[in-house]
Amino acid sequence: MTKYLRNMVIGVSLVTMALTGCGNGAKAEATTAKQEEVKADTTAARTSEKETSADQSGSQTERTAEGTEEGEKKTYKFGFTEWAAGSFFDACYDGVMEVVNEKGGEVIRVEGKTDSNYQLGVIEDFIAQDVDCVFYNPVDAEAAGPALKLLQEAGIPVVNFDLAVADLDMVTAFVATDHYSAGKVAGESMIKDHPEGGKIAILDRTNDNAAAQRIQGLLDTIEGKGFEVAARLDAGGKPETGLSTTEDILQANSDLVAIYCINDECAQGAYSAVKASGEKVGIYSANGGPESKAAIKKDGADGIWKMSAAQSPFTVGKESAEIAYKILEGENYEKETLVPTFAIDATNIDQYAGSDWQ
């Protein structure tokens, strides 16, 4: 779709929003405030990217100019948005930037702030800034539809990374950890530690396809091995909810052998709850991030945090960027790319404890 048509789409959307707002003054003010917040965050992100680019050896400006003169390169503008701030997404972004710095381009990064409506505003602003492609990690897989529809109407390709949207037909490509394998790896470790089986609990996160795949990988692996799921509750994927949920689970179940956590963040809370309770319950998680590695390194083989299925967010970001350039250059690309996981535990922690992510 041409830039002219993109601008028409944006213009129609803005007119519709203005007419709707006339019927409700308070709602219009709230919407305007959120739009201004998104605009401010996006502007700040662009300023930060330009400053970073200018500081790098062989500045982005030099690369762009060189490409224009030789007619060999075309630089692109990308939007990058993730569901929440965190070192995992910092590593994804670093992987993207390694490719963009090599090939030339600009990336505008704006966090979704765990708010689907806010992230929708981020996407609208990306469209207004005429980005060529969007790296999209949704706040809520089920609520991603409106944002993806706007991007489709604007003719902007989408590389969905890490958390899959509910309808993958609405994105151009999908890049993520092999989340099923993350659950499988945890299940294998659980079987090794508890060959006789036992009762376990699961800390879930609803509306999260990655969490669902991890749990399915775990359940398929431990099936028929003597394990019983005594509790499966939504812990929100965060430390504070992981703590309170695990406290409730431990009070209701005194004979657990293990708790599976869908990410290291909620596992932090589970770890604290188990440690405070004095129970001998092992924590098995996914991510292989700095939190799990620090606990495994500190406590050793007899510790509470037994293992984490390691992701490589840097690789996820790098693969996403490579595919984005292929899409924009009209080259062949994979519709779905899955990055494998592996177990980090007391036996190999020394190899990985020196860095945040793999």
Automatic annotation (TrEMBL):
Pfam families cross-referenced by the UniProt entry: Peripla_BP_4
Annotated GO MF terms: carbohydrate binding
Gene3D superfamilies with a match to the protein in the record: 3.40.50.2300
Keywords for this protein: Signal
UniProt-annotated stretches for the region Disordered: 28-71
Keyword Transmembrane helix attributed: no
PANTHER family attached to this UniProt entry: D-ALLOSE-BINDING PERIPLASMIC PROTEIN-RELATED
Descriptive protein name: Periplasmic binding protein domain-containing protein
Organism for this UniProt entry: [Clostridium] citroniae WAL-19142
